[in-house]
Specification:
Layout (H helix, E strand, L loop, with lengths): L1 H13 L5 E7 L3 E10 L23 E11 L1 H16 L4 E4 L3 H9 L16 H39 L6 H11 L4 H23 L8 H39 L2 H7 L4 H40 L3 H11 L2 H8 L1 H18 L5 H33 L2
Parallel strand pairs: 2-3, 3-4
Antiparallel strand pairs: 1-2
Helix pairs in contact: 2-3, 4-9, 4-12, 5-9, 6-7, 6-9, 7-9, 7-10, 7-11, 7-12, 7-13, 9-12, 12-13
Length: about 400
């Protein structure tokens, strides 16, 4: 005991601003532990060398802890004192805490006696359950997503009808604003991407067809491929990554700030107010962006065909008229509204799933982009099968 007292007094003399302890013997075989200094996390390093024990006192005699000389105390210092008090009381010894500011005393009072360890993990189930349980969860989540998408689509239409019934109508300003964000501002990137895609297809096609002396057929290749498949598909993928993520982020941020709950409180349908203008804007701008993408890709292909193969613009245009017809253009444009609805609905559903953390927002934005692109490609494949079945 004498060695312990000497150590703590030495510590106090070396670093007077750090936490220090003095131990005095009281009449009746008790002890008084006088704490002094700043009991903060950055000044408790030396005291914690004893496995986190406050003082190495043995026995169950009465102990008084005097906090009168403590200048300040944070959670780390209070936890050290509280754990010592709990250990002494559990061993059957009496502990009395005196002195200290009301804030320090309240901090000691509200702290728990010990750390509550998390429950042990549940035992592993049988091999059959471990294999098929994740598959079942995926199927259930897929079904819930489909139900949520149908709910969002129905609620958007119902919300629009409700506003029309009130005589206010759908706000043209919100639709035009979304069209500007999703369509007009996306024109440069869509044009650049489509120009490069058309140029690449033409260059690779001309390079391969040159061996057969059929470079003129590169016009057929680019025209049919771009107008039927590549134009609408890549435009939809770009819009899913650009506008779909924006829809999820906007709705998710509103969900985090409880703005959607506020709309419900004032009697508005949040899906009709927030989702419907975005669905209308996407349905309008995606076909228009597809047309722009098709023209840009064909122009890029014509430039490359003239550069690599000497096919002039007049020859390119004439051959393009012979290679494509109305069905070629229509088969691609019919897909655009469906893909626009898919992107908007999937993004809105993921936005409604956002919780109260930034991590949840980022996770659902990523999920919205991935799911939108996957469903868009799936729908494009289904359209291709349908067109083949009806010979369109």
């Amino acid at each position: 005991m004498a060695q312990c007292v000497e150590v703590v007094r030495t510590l106090k003399s070396v670093h007077p601003e750090s936490a220090a302890i003095d131990i005095d013997e009281l009449p009746g075989e008790g002890h008084r532990i006088r704490l002094s200094g700043a009991w903060r996390n950055n000044s408790l390093g030396t005291l914690l060398q004893n496995n986190g024990r406050l003082v190495p006192l043995d026995g169950t005699g009465p102990v008084e802890i005097d906090l009168s000389a403590v200048s300040e105390m944070d959670m780390a210092g209070a936890w050290l004192v509280r754990r010592f008090v709990a250990a002494r009381e559990k061993a059957g010894g009496g502990v009395k805490v005196t002195g200290g500011t009301p804030a320090v005393r309240e901090l000691l009072r509200v702290l728990p006696e010990d750390v509550k360890h998390p429950p042990p993990p549940p035992p592993k189930g049988p091999l059959f359950q471990r294999i098929f349980a994740p598959v079942g969860k995926v199927i259930v989540n897929l079904w819930l997503d489909i139900v949520a998408m149908m709910f969002v689509l129905g609620s958007a239409v119902h919300g629009a009808q409700t506003k029309l019934g009130r005589g206010s109508g759908i706000s043209p300003a919100s639709v035009v604003t979304q069209m500007d964000h999703m369509g007009v501002r996306a024109v440069p990137i869509i044009m650049l991407m489509s120009f490069l895609i058309g140029a690449i297809i033409a260059q690779q096609g001309a390079f391969q067809l040159r061996y057969f002396g059929a470079e003129i057929f590169v016009v057929d290749l680019v025209g049919i491929l771009q107008l039927r498949e590549i134009g609408v598909l890549l435009t939809a993928i770009m819009i899913a990554g650009r506008s779909g993520s924006a829809i999820t982020a906007e709705i998710g941020s509103m969900k985090m700030r409880e703005e959607i709950d506020a709309l419900k409180v004032i009697g508005l349908n949040p899906i009709g107010v927030l989702v419907f203008p975005r669905l209308v804007a996407l349905t309008v701008v995606l076909p228009l962006l597809t047309i722009i993408a098709n023209f840009s890709a064909l122009y890029g292909a014509s430039v490359v065909a003239w550069t690599y193969s000497g096919i002039t613009f007049d020859v390119f245009t004439t051959r393009l008229h012979d290679a494509i017809d109305y069905s070629t253009v229509a088969s691609g444009m019919i897909k655009a509204p469906f893909m626009a609805l898919i992107i908007g609905i999937v993004s809105a559903v993921e936005g409604m799933k956002v919780g109260g953390s930034a991590e949840s927002l980022g996770r659902h934005v990523t999920a919205a982009v991935v799911k939108s692109i996957f469903v868009v490609i799936l729908v494009d494949a289904l359209f291709a099968i349908f067109y083949s079945a009806i010979d369109f």
